[in-house]
Task: inverse folding
């Protein structure tokens, strides 16, 4: 660029022209994966023009990934821009910083000037987690580090200052290695095992304690503050002990509550016995992984605060198929909580160790084996169309490994469960010849030549998906993963001709689409004697009453506290029960369940944690849904279903539909609870609509879809008729 043009560009920026700022362009570069060719060319032009006039300070004021991505855009390197965006969403913001030189290694091979990769003050972010227990003295355990720089106890230090109205004290800090804390650090590159510490404060908690933590790492000083809340006069100490079956929580006769989505871990007087296995809808299963809050009407505290001197791995209660670790108060958490984890060795936990384990397995990969790897909803389920396909593979003599997030997921008979992220899982996936999934595998997987992948997907779509979404909010990691997935699929399953025309272009899939009906509906169609229906109702404590299943989908834009997807309900389930006498089963979509909380009202049963939607459909007399694909599955029963859609216009603008349901409804389209009640009380006259809907969308769901799909994918079994 000549000097005249450079001067003009700088003058226009100084004069307040419309030339985008580095910050604005960096934001566009983060989502460049959504741009069409014309949009990319505009970004390249603006980035190249800006790069010619921006000062070094302007460049370095951006976060490191933004400045490197913007530089790549300025030289038309779209692959690098999209790789950086994918890395941000899949692996988080962490990177490795070389001690001394402060040179940043992003973990990706990106061509960029060295000066862009020198860590700036704003790149070196301090991270701090703490726990506090005890009324007097107070024990505090923490992990603190500067992200990207491996903590070295021989050269680095942690200093604590605790301030109350009585003044400030500086207690002695004892460092103690904690591999669990490193695994939970979120660091993909730096090892923070040695960044953990504990200290004793000879104070009492009748008033708040402001804790100032000063971290000195590689000569860099970072200070963070956090306030430990006071304990009220009614504080009760909680003892958490191991028993033969699980854990016992004792609090001197105080009623305790353990927040959980299970039926077994809920409420009881102290001592409260929490078994590792509990009954959920008539079946015994291991408690799901997660953090469970222990609460009561009085403030709680750990009975033995000195336990915080121990690393978390040593605090864990080792049970069959899971580990339970007591945790004291930490910011944003209950006074006391129980963290339930799968028994994956600590050496294999966390982003950094997973990266090393994955590299090891790939490096020593052997030939593919005549085995299958199955996955359903990211390992959280064991049903959908994947289950009948897996059972069919076993009948064909092909062993099946099923990836599960935890042992609360009960896999089909004859199938071996393997824990997600375990060494066993990495080995099984890497060597399986056959892959079956209804969504995507973890973003870090790489498919091997010769693997045969059947993508069953998880429903006929009414709402737009993939590339067809009206307002695209998909992350770079998900977009890149689905692009890799579509290339790896050998075949894609569609329930009907309509789905066969919609799904492939939405995913950019150009391979074979199998249209033989949906295997997940075989059990629903074949339940002619009502055995599945009766078994499910018995497990739910239902008799012969009318049962309404309310199963809404999630909303992209609806968010609650902490950014979680909010549960959007347009049905007053309790009023439906009161006015009609029907029992209402409420099933939140898995994407929104975490932000919903408990549902406990007369005549209303929360079935969100039920493992089998097909069984719930069999148990229901009436389905109330909105834009969920369950409408296409329930259609095979030709029972009454209603679409409760007061926000149809809003949803149309936000997500978009493939067709107008009002033109081809599966039943009454309503906008309020009162209208739902009216249909239930006054009778339904939508029989013709239900028949037409089934003929269009479920003509092949006759109970034999799984066998036909397997024959289409792998060929008929030799000797079979």
Result:
């Amino acid at each position: 660029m000549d000097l005249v043009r450079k001067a003009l560009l700088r003058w226009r920026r100084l004069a307040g022209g419309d030339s985008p700022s580095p910050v604005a362009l960096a934001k566009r570069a983060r989502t460049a994966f959504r741009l069409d060719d014309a949009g990319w060319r505009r970004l390249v032009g603006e980035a190249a023009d800006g790069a010619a006039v921006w000062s070094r300070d302007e460049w370095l004021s951006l976060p490191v990934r933004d400045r490197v991505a913007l530089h790549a855009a300025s030289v038309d390197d779209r692959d690098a821009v999209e790789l950086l965006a994918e890395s941000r969403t899949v692996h988080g913001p962490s990177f490795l910083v070389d001690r001394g030189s402060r040179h940043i290694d992003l973990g990706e091979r990106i061509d960029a000037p060295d000066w862009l990769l020198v860590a700036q003050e704003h790149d070196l972010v301090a991270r701090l987690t703490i726990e506090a227990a005890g009324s007097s003295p107070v024990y505090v355990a923490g992990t603190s580090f500067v992200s990207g720089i491996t903590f070295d106890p021989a050269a680095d230090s942690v200093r604590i200052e605790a301030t109350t109205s009585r003044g400030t004290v500086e207690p002695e800090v004892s460092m103690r290695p904690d591999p669990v804390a490193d695994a939970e650090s979120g660091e993909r590159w730096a090892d923070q095992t040695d960044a953990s510490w504990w200290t004793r404060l000879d104070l009492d908690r009748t008033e708040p304690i402001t804790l100032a933590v000063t971290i000195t790492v590689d000569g860099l000083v970072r200070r963070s503050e956090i306030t430990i809340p006071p304990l009220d006069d009614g504080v009760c100490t909680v003892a958490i002990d191991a028993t033969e079956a699980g854990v016992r929580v004792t609090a001197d006769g105080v009623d305790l509550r353990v927040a959980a989505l299970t039926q077994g871990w809920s409420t009881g007087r102290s001592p409260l016995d929490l078994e590792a296995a509990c009954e959920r809808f008539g079946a015994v299963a291991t408690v799901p992984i997660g953090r469970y809050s222990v609460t009561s009407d009085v403030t709680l505290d750990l009975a033995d605060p000195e336990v915080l001197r121990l690393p978390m791995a040593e605090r864990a209660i080792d049970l069959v198929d899971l580990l339970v670790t007591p945790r004291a108060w930490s910011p944003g958490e209950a006074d006391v909580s129980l963290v339930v984890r799968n028994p994956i060795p600590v050496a294999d936990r966390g982003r950094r160790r997973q990266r090393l384990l994955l590299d090891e397995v790939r490096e020593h990969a052997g030939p593919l084996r005549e085995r299958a790897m199955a996955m359903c909803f990211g390992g959280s389920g064991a049903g959908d169309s994947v289950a009948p396909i897996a059972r069919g593979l076993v009948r064909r003599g092909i062993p099946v490994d099923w990836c599960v997030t935890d042992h609360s997921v009960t896999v089909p008979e004859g199938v071996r469960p393997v824990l997600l992220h375990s060494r066993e899982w990495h080995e099984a996936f890497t060597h399986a010849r056959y892959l079956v999934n209804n969504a995507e595998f973890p973003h870090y997987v790489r498919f091997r030549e010769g693997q045969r992948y059947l993508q069953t997907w998880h429903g006929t779509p009414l709402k737009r998906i993939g590339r067809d979404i009206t307002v695209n909010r998909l992350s770079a990691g998900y977009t890149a993963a689905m692009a890799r997935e579509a290339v790896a699929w050998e075949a894609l399953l569609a329930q009907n001709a309509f789905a066969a025309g919609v799904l492939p272009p939405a995913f950019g899939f150009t391979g074979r689409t199998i249209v033989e009906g949906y295997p997940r509906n075989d059990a629903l169609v074949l339940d002619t004697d009502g055995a599945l229906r009766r078994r499910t109702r018995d497990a739910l404590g239902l008799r012969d009453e009318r049962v309404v299943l309310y199963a809404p989908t999630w909303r992209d834009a609806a968010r609650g506290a902490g950014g979680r997807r909010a549960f959007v309900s347009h049905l007053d389930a309790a009023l439906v029960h009161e006015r009609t006498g029907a029992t209402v089963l409420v099933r939140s979509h898995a994407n929104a369940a975490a932000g919903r909380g408990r549902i406990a009202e007369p005549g209303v049963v929360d079935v969100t944690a039920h493992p089998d939607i097909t069984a719930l459909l069999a148990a229901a007399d009436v389905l109330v849904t909105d834009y969920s694909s369950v409408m296409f599955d329930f259609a095979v029963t030709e029972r009454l279903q209603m679409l409760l859609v007061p926000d149809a216009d809003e949803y149309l603008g936000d997500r978009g539909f493939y067709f107008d349901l009002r033109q081809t409804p599966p039943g009454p389209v309503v906008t309020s609870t009162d209208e739902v009640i009216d249909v239930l009380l006054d009778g339904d006259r939508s029989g013709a609509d239900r028949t037409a809907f089934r003929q269009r969308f479920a003509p092949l769901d006759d109970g034999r879809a799984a066998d036909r799909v397997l024959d289409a994918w792998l060929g008929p079994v030799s000797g079979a008729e």
About this structure: DSSP finds 23 helices and 35 strands in the chain. The chain has a mean pLDDT of 88. Residues 124-338 form one domain. Residues 37-51 form the longest helix (15 residues).
